[in-house]
Specification:
Helix Hairpins, coiled coil, DgyrCDS5649, 96% helix, 208 residues, single chain
């Protein structure tokens, strides 16, 4: 083999080595680029995973809070129903007391009317054949009427106290019903806000 062929062979070998070296550098650069891309993708995946976990936690908490608010709302509805029932019962008691008061007033009026009739008969002289005996009877009637009148006045006072108490109870119940309804409105508003928040978080999760 002559010297020129050897030189050409060595030149060819050198060119081939340089070409392979250049290819090696290209591959190395591509590998480094892929490694960086892999790290970036891994970082994005980790960030997405954390975002997903946070979103799931937030959704779980929101759902738990929503259920809690719904339970509180149901309890408020039950409390209002009980208060309304008590209100109706108290109204019925109050009506009965007023009816009883009216009945006692009529009884008192009848007693006064009867006493007036007896006194008028005395004045007319059309009833008694034995004045002393009838006078004693009349006095007993008047005494009994006075006692009954005192009892009626006492009963009237007691009825007035009961009516005042029932009216106070009715007012308290009405205030509780109003507070309960206001609480339910607040709870419903909070539930609506939570539902809107869950919707937004779901949309953000789907977009990511």
């Amino acid at each position: 083999m002559d010297e020129n062929k050897i030189t050409d062979f060595l030149t060819s070998m050198r060119a081939s080595i340089e070409k392979k070296e250049a290819r090696k550098n290209v591959l190395k650069a591509e590998l480094e680029s892929l490694t960086k891309t892999e790290d970036t993708v891994r970082s994005i995946c980790e960030s997405t995973r954390k975002t997903l976990e946070n979103t799931e936690f937030s959704l779980s908490f929101s759902l738990h809070r929503e259920r809690e608010l719904e339970e509180r709302s149901e309890k408020c509805n039950k409390d209002i129903a009980l208060l309304e029932q008590k209100f109706r019962e108290s109204q019925s008691i109050l009506n009965n007391l007023q009816h009883k008061k009216e009945k006692e007033r009529q009884t008192m009026n009848e007693a006064v009317k009867e006493r007036t009739t007896v006194i008028d008969d005395l004045r007319m002289g059309s009833v008694f054949r034995e004045p002393q005996e009838e006078l004693k009877k009349l006095k007993r009637i008047v005494k009994n009427r006075k006692q009954n009148l005192g009892k009626l006045k006492q009963l009237k006072t007691e009825l007035q106290k009961e009516v005042a108490y029932e009216e106070s109870e009715l007012k308290s119940i009405q205030e509780k019903i109003a507070d309960g309804r206001q609480t339910i409105c607040k709870e419903k508003k909070l539930i609506s806000e939570l539902q809107q928040r869950i919707k937004v978080e779901n949309e953000e999760l789907n977009n990511s």
